[in-house]
Sequence to fold (202 residues):
Amino acid sequence: MTRTARLGRCGVLVLTGVLGAWLGAATARAEDANKADIEALKKSLAKYEDYTAAVRDLYLSTVGCVHYAGEKIAGAMYYPKGAMGIHFVNVPSVGKPLDPMKPNVLIYEPTKKGLKLVGVEWLVPLTPDTKEVPTLFGQKFMGPMEGHYPLIPREFVHYDLHAWLFRDNPNGMFSPTNPKVTCSRADFPMLEKPTKMMPGPM
Ligand SMILES: [Cu+2]
Fold:
């Protein structure tokens, strides 16, 4: 190897190292920013620990406590075994621009002590104007998929993102189901089939 070639390779290695460190720092900064945003969001939603406050703000119960068996079906979403709980949907906000501080759905788990706020969800309908997959807190939404029948019409093709802000999830904060949440105390448990995926924007 000539001296210049050796120096050149060395230079590339140094450059790669510098770029790597810079990208690493940028990622860490983005993660910190997301963490701060998530903390702010949790604070602003704490009032909904009382579900009647949620109802007054038009987050209305969809009654069924949704859970999944963890089956894998070709062409359908994969939901790890676990529950989503009872969705309280704020219908007027669905289809409006995505607001990280105002999730479209609050999720409650029926417990011995009543309904416990465990998570939130954002819904983005698929429209002819959709150019790309929505993201929030550095997370890509799941979908597009059909509406979650029978509580939501199949025609409601959408993307969604769950965040388990108020209950640890061993599968990660943004996993769609939470194995630590259960519908065993629900009056209306609803075992749902994985939702069918739909074609998205090119
Ligand atoms: Cu959900």
